[in-house]
Backbone:
């Protein structure tokens, strides 16, 4: 999998907002809210091919959680990202 | 200083310098956010509030409200950015290089630019390009001028939906011709000859020289203080510009400009507040004088009592009937302004009074009577 290009991640209080934006255009219908851990993973896989396992490892390393919880969280996150059409 | 005021400044410092906030005891969120609102800093504080430990955070409902306000501010920021980029591109196609003043340019200096509130876009195009620029920008999609008096002498207003843009022929409109001439030479140097190009979220923009950014940001705050009331937002802008350009400023030039415009005393008093309340390191605040602390305390009281755009103007609100009565009413207003200012800055009050009576009395009375 790979992140789709043309998105900017903007920190906003307790959340991060992913915005489909270029210099001259912003798609206001595609603004996605991410929590801190999702934003961490999004930034970590910039310009990289990744698999679900990559995200699980990153999550376990950063947040000191069990593999079972990490796998569950990553599965749910990837589902959201696919539905939002922000990864290929 | 009340507990809520101390808490307000602790939160504001955290937002300005991206540092952890340390508050003992319970945060008086309702009062703190009321102060923040009066000083146009509520979005900045919301960003800090949502990242505090659970026992210090506001209630969930207040947090949700803060998050909505931050999202709205982001959407406004993005929409205004699009308007700005199209305006600059259009002007460049016609060989006009606009210089961005205030708002956006200053927001970019904050740790999180999305959290600094601003109302309009200010573009300086100069006297020679003014009419052509206004004509061009009126043609941008969504642009219209809904007021007959769109041209204020200083700038021309164009509205893009809820987003106003001001096209400036001059950055400041001064009553005193002598002062205006001095300002004009400062403007020529800082805005035209030494404007700098900066990257603005992937787009290259012209902004004034570093010294002019600092000088003009302070001048703007001072003008707010003289007229409608200054908020900690404008004062924070001064602090952030000084911090960003620390070590890069031509301080002799800045001193020369402040002295020429008789702004050294106000600068020194505001400087005490910027260091004491906003936490700018002393080394980053040039020309600060501790002897101005007493004056700074009075200034602090005025700022806290008024806030941004919140000075009550009884004279404009309660205009009497009849031209002569209105003129008299406006004339008295000049003296009321004088006594209010004289309490904090007697020298500046005399200067303002002198200017109003000598050079601008007619203009000021007309303005107060008819607008």
Residues:
């Amino acid at each position: 999998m790979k992140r789709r290009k043309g998105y900017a991640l903007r920190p906003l209080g307790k959340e991060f907002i992913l915005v489909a934006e270029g210099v001259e255009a912003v798609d206001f219908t595609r603004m996605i809210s991410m929590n801190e851990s999702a934003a961490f993973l999004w930034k970590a896989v910039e310009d990289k091919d990744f698999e679900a396992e990559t995200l699980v490892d990153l999550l376990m390393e950063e947040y000191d959680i069990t593999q079972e919880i990490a796998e569950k969280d990553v599965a749910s996150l990837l589902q959201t990202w696919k539905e939002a059409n922000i990864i290929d | 200083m009340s507990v809520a005021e101390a808490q307000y400044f602790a939160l504001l410092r955290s937002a300005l310098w991206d540092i952890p906030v340390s508050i003992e005891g319970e945060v008086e969120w309702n009062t703190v956010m009321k102060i923040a609102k009066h000083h146009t800093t509520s979005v900045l504080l919301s960003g800090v509030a949502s990242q505090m430990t659970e026992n210090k955070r506001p209630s969930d409902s207040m947090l949700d409200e803060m998050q909505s306000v931050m999202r709205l501010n982001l959407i406004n920021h993005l929409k205004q950015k699009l308007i700005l980029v199209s305006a600059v591109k259009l002007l460049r196609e016609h060989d006009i290089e606009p210089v961005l003043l205030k708002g956006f340019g200053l927001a970019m200096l904050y740790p999180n630019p999305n959290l600094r509130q601003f109302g309009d876009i200010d573009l300086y195009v100069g006297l020679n390009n003014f009419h052509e620029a206004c004509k061009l920008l009126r043609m941008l999609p969504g642009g219209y001028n809904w007021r007959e008096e769109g041209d204020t002498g200083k700038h021309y207003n164009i509205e893009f939906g809820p987003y106003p843009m001001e096209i400036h022929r001059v950055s400041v409109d001064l009553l005193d011709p002598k002062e205006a001439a001095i300002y004009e030479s400062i403007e020529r140097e800082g805005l035209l000859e030494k404007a700098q190009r900066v990257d603005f979220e992937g787009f290259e923009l012209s902004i004034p020289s570093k010294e002019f950014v600092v000088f003009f940001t302070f001048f703007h705050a001072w003008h707010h203080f003289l007229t409608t009331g200054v908020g900690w937002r404008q004062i924070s802008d001064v602090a952030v510009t000084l911090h960003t350009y620390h070590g890069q400023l031509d301080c002799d030039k800045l001193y020369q400009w402040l002295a020429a415009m008789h702004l050294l005393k106000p600068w020194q008093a505001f400087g005490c507040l910027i260091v004491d309340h906003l936490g700018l390191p002393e080394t980053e605040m040039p020309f600060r004088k501790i002897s101005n602390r007493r004056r700074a305390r009075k200034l602090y009281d005025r700022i806290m009592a008024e806030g941004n755009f919140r000075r009550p103007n009884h004279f404009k609100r309660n205009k009497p009937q009849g031209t002569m009565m209105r003129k008299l009413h406006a004339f008295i207003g000049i003296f009321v302004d004088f006594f209010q200012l004289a309490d904090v800055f007697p020298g500046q009050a005399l200067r303002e009074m002198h200017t109003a009576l000598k050079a601008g009395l007619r203009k000021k009375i007309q303005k107060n009577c008819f607008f």
In short: Residues 7-83 of chain A form one domain. The longest strand of chain A covers residues 26-34. The first helix of chain A runs from residue 36 to 44.
